Task: inverse folding
């Protein structure tokens, strides 16, 4: 069972890396939820939901809540394969999880557990984690895992999410992509047609 946040939270002595609240608010708004059902990777101090798992319980060996809403997961970025594999397995039980990860499109964990398994929202707009003075320097994305229900029809496999505006990049609307008139290749000025030209 996940932990239940105590009525009185203990003092926040240590600043931990935490997801910026404005990003969490944007995710909830986009998913149409007031709160997340469970924070799957947390401490007493940094949980963003009333229910949460810590390293002591080890969310990787627990059943993730299936309350009909969305679980939140910002996992340790060091070893992502077990987290995305677990999210995919849990999705098979009907569990919905929104997960923040680097956009590691060349990694094996992406090939095996993200590509065509999660809906991928590539984040337009860098995130500054709580306690960090500067934005995280790499591209990030939000992965949505869940059963093949309504949300999977709503989201394309890959899209760009302008999260600060809760708006979509052109990839979400293929019909809006402007077709460029066919012109053929350019020729550098002053170049004379040679054997290859
Ligand atoms: C990036 S922080 C996320 C902080 C915060 N919950 C959030 O979403 O912004 C990752 C958290 O996962 C916790 N954690 C690490 N391994 C875990 C595990 N196996 N199960 C549950 N939590 C774990 C760490 O202690 C850390 O607090």
Result:
């Amino acid at each position: 069972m996940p932990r239940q946040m105590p009525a009185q939270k203990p003092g926040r002595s240590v600043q931990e890396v935490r997801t910026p609240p404005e990003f969490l608010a944007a995710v909830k708004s986009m998913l149409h939820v007031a709160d997340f059902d469970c924070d799957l990777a947390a401490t007493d101090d940094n949980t963003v939901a009333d229910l949460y798992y810590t390293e002591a319980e080890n969310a990787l060996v627990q059943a993730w809540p299936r309350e009909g809403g969305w679980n939140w997961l910002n996992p340790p970025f060091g070893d992502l394969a077990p987290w995305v594999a677990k999210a995919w397995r849990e999705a098979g039980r009907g569990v919905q999880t929104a997960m923040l990860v680097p956009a590691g499109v060349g990694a094996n964990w992406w090939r095996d557990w993200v590509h065509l398994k999660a809906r991928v929202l590539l984040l337009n707009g860098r995130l500054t984690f709580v306690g960090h003075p500067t934005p995280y320097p790499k591209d990030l994305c939000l992965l949505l895992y869940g059963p093949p229900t309504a949300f999977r029809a709503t989201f394309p496999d890959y899209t760009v999410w302008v999260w600060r505006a809760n708006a979509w990049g052109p990839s979400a609307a293929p019909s809006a992509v402007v077709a460029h008139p066919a012109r053929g290749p350019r020729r550098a000025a002053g170049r004379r047609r040679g054997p290859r030209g």
In short: The chain is about 15% helix and 20% strand. The chain has one domain: 15-171.
